[in-house]
Each structure stands twice: as C-alpha cells, then as structure tokens.
From TrEMBL:
Its EC number is 2.7.7.4. Residues 12-228 form the Tr-type G domain. This is sulfate adenylyltransferase. It comes from the Bacteria. PANTHER family: TRANSLATION FACTOR. Keywords: ATP-binding, GTP-binding, Nucleotide-binding, Nucleotidyltransferase, Transferase. It is an enzyme of class 2 (transferase). Pfam families: GTP-eEF1A_C, GTP_EFTU.
Length: 438
C-alpha cells in the first residue's frame, strides 16, 4: 500500500498493528492465515504454496510459506528490519508490521511496534509465557502500545486446552496489569493458526472460549488515533519561497502535522524562538483547507514575516513544550558496538538533526525481573536504559508518555549514518512502575 493510498483511508477505518513472539510460536503461519482468510493474497501465490506444501508431503497448504521467504533472507544475512503486510476486511484496513522472533531482533520489535495501535503477541500453548514473552511485553509497555492481543497458538496440541488457556491467560493478565495495561485493553484468544481456529472463523474445538475471533476483534477494537491529545505540533520540513511573478511574496512552511490540529486564524508560536503569529492559510497541492489534523501534509502561511527554518516547530501557545537543551531519555540500543558515557552522536527529532553528547548512563532495564540496574558501564545490543543527553541545538519535544510522535527520536552514527538507538524523551522506564511488578 502506498503512502498516498494509506493517507486516503479514513483514520477510523485504518488500524496499525504489529506481531511479536518467540521463534517457532507459529507467527508466520498466523500472518499467512490472516492474509489467506481476508483474501489478501493472489491466486497464483496460493497455487505456489499449495504445490510447495504437496512437495513437502502436507495434506493442507502451509500458509507460513506466504511469508517465510523473508525468514530465509534473514538467515542469509540480508538485513530486513520489519516486513509490512497490508490486508483489509469490509470493516477495516490494516497495516501489519511483521517482526522477527529471534531474541537478537528485539530492536526490530521496537521499530515495528513504535507506531502500532495494537500488537498481537504469540505464545505456544505448550510453552506458555516464557522469558521472551516477558521481554516483548516490557518493550511494548515502554513504547506505550495501547492494545494487546495474546494469541495462544497451537492450542490443539495440548491435552487439556481449557486449563492450559486459563493458566496462560491468568499469568499474562498478571504481567500486563503490572506493566500498566487495563484489563479491557488486553484480550487472550486460543487459536490454531494451522487449522484456522478462532482466526477468522469461530472454532467448535474451543467451547470454553466465548469471545471474538481474532479478525472480529481487529475489526471492532476501539483505538484512539491520538490517545494523549496535545495542541498543534508542526515540524517545519521545508520553507517554500517560489519568487515567481505569479507568487512574488509567497512564503509558506511545508511539513506534516505531528499532533493536534490547525485552522486559519489560529494563533501559533514558533519554537524554539518563541515568536508568536497567526495562521492565515492552509495550502495543499489540491487547494486550500479549512483545517488540518495529525498526519496531514500541508503548507502553512503565516500572517507575519517571521524567521522560521527547517527543524523549527509551529505549535499551539496554550501547551507549547519548552525547548530542551539537555534531558533524560529512555533508549533501546540497536548497535553491535556498546553505548558508553561521553559518546558523540547525531540526534534526529522530527525534522531537526543536531549534534548530541551522551552524559550519564542512569540505569538499565532488566526485562525479566522488571527492575532497574543503576549506573551501568554500557548499554549493549538490544538493551534498554535511561540516559542523559545534551544537544547542540534545542529540540521541541513532548514527553513520550504525553505524545508518542513528538516524544521519540533517533540516535545516529555521525560517521556512517547508521541508526544506533531509538529514544523516548522522558523516563519511560519509570512509567511502567519498576519495583512493583509480579
């Protein structure tokens, strides 16, 4: 699905979701089943999977083959962070971030779930909640994912499925409750991805379960596009000055509304300078708009000829954030080379990229015990910790717990341009109430 097509979908009909789980929990089969049952794969793909399944001696199509090509590429050393799948039902369209299950790919789970409104977390019914499940749940809590589904897969392979499902559900509910999710935001579903039980069709094999199928839940789950509402946040991407006879004095500021909304006549403040002015017009390639909401790319025209540059933020004066020159942040370290105090990196926040120095490594998260380890010497690959950061140019950011879009950033290698860390402004570790866990 192109970005243009995605923007054309009504926000109430588009659900962003991600999958997570351990190796061999059946995630590829579940994703293949979702694509198959929603008729989101071509006939020739199904024919190819059927032939390959017959060659393997299987009596039914192995739906994991619809997505396992990417797994083979990963095993060959080809870097694939997240595979995005697109499917739809009559009630909703879906963008699914399919993340790998190996523990060394936790960083990819961070990438895939960072914009998700719902995550499907898989467990094998024969294994239950394991260490990787707890790690994924902790990461998803830090990222502020609003809704969770626990798909208890391979439920047909256990002797007493009702008792197993009840036990796994109770343990998972205890975990998610301790991480801050309300009970109504978490749903456990017994499924067999191989046979399609409770994926699109309710199964007669699970009489102990009276809830919705997975697809029914995905179609109906209420998800707020902006669970933490703030005023306008408009990072300026480009200053438009055509200087043509047709537009001799035109000056507009192009970008995407990151949060809130804007209308002509609204008073705004330019950050970090603090200068105030008024929006006079909202332009697009298709003409003027009466308003623009989060996710819409527009050009704002202002009443005054003020100094605005790429990286500045046009914001609502009522709740404008203070520009930050130094701040604490929670980061997931994504690089093989460990992070140590004093590292000089680039920090990218919105449309601004600036030099940054890492100060103190305040603490490291133990995802299994859900406790913090103070003053670590370094953060290794996939580790999560709280650090202090000082930037050369102030950034205009909200706390991540207030707004996910304006509270996130990247740390980048200044030499090679590689992404080294995903960061959350503020103490997201504290937001999961460490020390009060199960």
């Amino acid at each position: 699905m192109s970005d243009l097509h995605e923007r054309s979908l009504p926000s109430t009909q588009l659900l962003r979701l991600a999958t997570a789980g351990s190796v061999d929990d059946g995630k590829s089969t579940l994703v293949g089943r979702l694509l198959y049952d929603t008729k989101s794969v071509l006939a020739d793909q199904i024919d190819a999977v059927t032939r390959a399944s017959v060659d393997k001696g299987l009596s039914t199509p192995d739906l994991s083959l619809l997505v396992d090509g990417l797994r083979a590429e990963r095993e060959q050393g080809i870097t694939i962070d997240v595979a995005y799948r697109y499917f739809a039902t009559p009630r909703r369209s879906f963008v699914l971030a399919d993340t790998p299950g190996h523990v060394q790919y936790t960083r990819n789970t961070v990438s895939g779930a960072s914009t998700a409104q719902l995550v499907i977390l898989l467990v094998d019914a024969r294994k239950g909640v394991i260490s990787q499940t707890r790690k994924h749940a902790a990461v998803l809590a830090l990222l502020g994912v609003p809704k969770l589904v626990l798909a208890v897969n391979k439920i047909d392979l256990v002797e007493d499925p009702a008792s197993v499902f009840a036990e796994i559900s109770a343990e998972f509910n205890s975990l998610t409750s301790s991480l801050g999710w309300a009970s109504e935001d978490v749903l456990e579903i017994p499924v067999s991805a191989l046979h399609g039980d409770n994926v699109a069709v309710r199964s007669d094999n699970t009489p102990y379960y009276d809830g919705p199928t997975l697809i029914e839940h995905l179609e109906s789950v209420p998800v707020d596009a902006e669970p933490h509402r703030v005023g306008l946040r408009f990072p300026v991407q480009y200053v438009i000055r055509p200087r043509t006879p047709e537009f001799p004095d035109y000056r507009g500021y192009a970008g995407q509304v990151a949060a809130g909304a804007v209308e002509p006549g609204d008073e705004v403040v330019i950050l970090p300078s603090g200068v105030r002015t008024t929006v006079t017009r909202i332009d697009t390639a298709d003409g003027e708009l009466d308003s623009a909401h989060a996710g819409r790319s527009v050009t704002l025209v202002l009443a005054d000829d003020v100094d605005v540059s790429r990286g500045d933020v046009i914001a609502s004066p009522a709740d404008a954030p203070e520009p930050l020159g130094e701040f604490d942040a929670t980061v997931c370290w994504l690089a093989e080379k460990p992070l140590r105090p004093g590292a000089r990196l680039l920090l990218k926040h919105g449309t601004r990229t600036t030099q940054a120095i890492v100060g103190t490594l305040v603490e490291r998260l133990n995802e299994q015990e859900l406790t913090s380890e103070p003053s670590p010497e370094s953060l290794e690959l996939n580790e999560i910790g709280k650090i202090s950061v000082r930037v050369a140019e102030p950034i205009v950011a909200d706390d991540y717990t207030v707004n996910r879009h304006t509270g996130s950033f990247l740390l980048i290698d200044p030499a090679g341009g590689n992404t080294l860390a995903a960061g959350l402004v503020g103490d997201a570790i504290a937001s999961v109430e460490l020390g009060e866990r199960v």
